[in-house]
Design brief:
The chain is of the alpha/beta class. Helices cover 40% and strands 15% of the residues. It has a seven-stranded parallel sheet, sandwiched between helices. Helix 5 links the parallel strand 5 and strand 6. Helix 1 crosses helix 7, helix 3 runs parallel beside helix 4 and helix 4 packs parallel to helix 5. The N and C termini lie far apart (49 Å).
Length: 259
């Protein structure tokens, strides 16, 4: 039996590299999938590709009314909501703090942090009505240390960690589990293409050569962990943080010695 049969999953940023991977995998595992995003063309195309049990819903994660509309649409289409994946996120162009515009700071925190807060706020009553469920917030390895030139993004993802732990405490007795995933450098356009206003991409600053597992991550790597955390196999896990980075945070790996 598929792990998510008769369950409904809402994925924000569902048309991006990681988001679309998550959407396809949940659908393959039997779930009704709600693709939340702002790119209507790509969202509709993905929903059409999947066919039955898939819907695209326009969702601006920074707007509480947009969240309410999306969650209501999910309930109307499928009768319940069981899993929320707060995947939507944006990156700032790499600049020092002293050269960072306040508008950039506000925009990054609005999407990455406030968007996650609003998702939990609006979805929690719906998950409670369904008898419980799971929320996974996609953070970053940048939320586990400092990264020069990325202050808004780092600050937003550090804050998501505290928000996640608080939500886990508040919602645990309602049978709603809340966890974070911290991806490292994942091979998507998010890291291969410069952020708006930037000339360099995140990938320009990282080489996987020193990693213990010397390659970039793939969206499917994150998706497999996400499926576990939102399934009944993880029923005793909440308020936890899962790093998936090929050993990036460990430091340089020893090179293989040949005899």
């Amino acid at each position: 039996m598929p792990r998510f049969e008769d369950q409904t999953v809402l994925v924000t940023g569902g048309t991006g590299g990681q988001g679309s991977s998550h959407v396809r995998a949940f659908h393959a595992e039997g779930a009704n999938v709600v693709i939340g995003g702002i790119d209507a063309e790509r969202g509709a195309a993905l929903a059409d590709e999947l066919g039955a049990r898939a819907r695209f819903i326009h969702l601006d994660v920074t707007d509480e009314n947009s969240w309410s509309t999306a969650v209501l649409a999910a309930e109307s289409a499928f009768g319940a909501l069981n899993v929320l994946v707060n995947n939507a996120g944006v990156q700032n162009p790499p600049v020092p703090i002293e050269n960072t515009d306040q508008s950039t700071w506000s925009r990054i925190l609005d999407v990455n942090l406030t968007g996650t807060f609003l998702g939990i706020k609006v979805a929690a009553p719906v998950l409670r009505r369904a008898g419980g469920g799971a929320i996974v917030n996609i953070a970053s390895t940048m939320s586990l240390g400092g990264t020069a030139y990325y202050a808004p993004y780092v600050a937003s993802k550090w804050a998501v960690r505290g928000l996640t732990r608080t939500a886990a405490l508040e919602l645990g007795r309602d049978h709603i589990r809340v966890n974070t995933i911290h991806p490292g450098v994942i091979a998507t356009s998010f890291i291969h293409e410069p952020a708006a206003g930037a000339t360099a991409a995140i990938a320009d600053f990282y080489s996987p050569e020193p990693f213990a597992i010397p390659r970039l991550g793939e969206p499917a790597d994150v998706t497999r962990l996400l499926l576990f955390l939102t399934s009944s196999d993880a029923s005793f896990i909440t308020g936890s943080e899962y790093v998936i980075d090929g050993g990036l945070l460990l430091g340089p790996a020893l090179q293989t010695q040949t005899a």
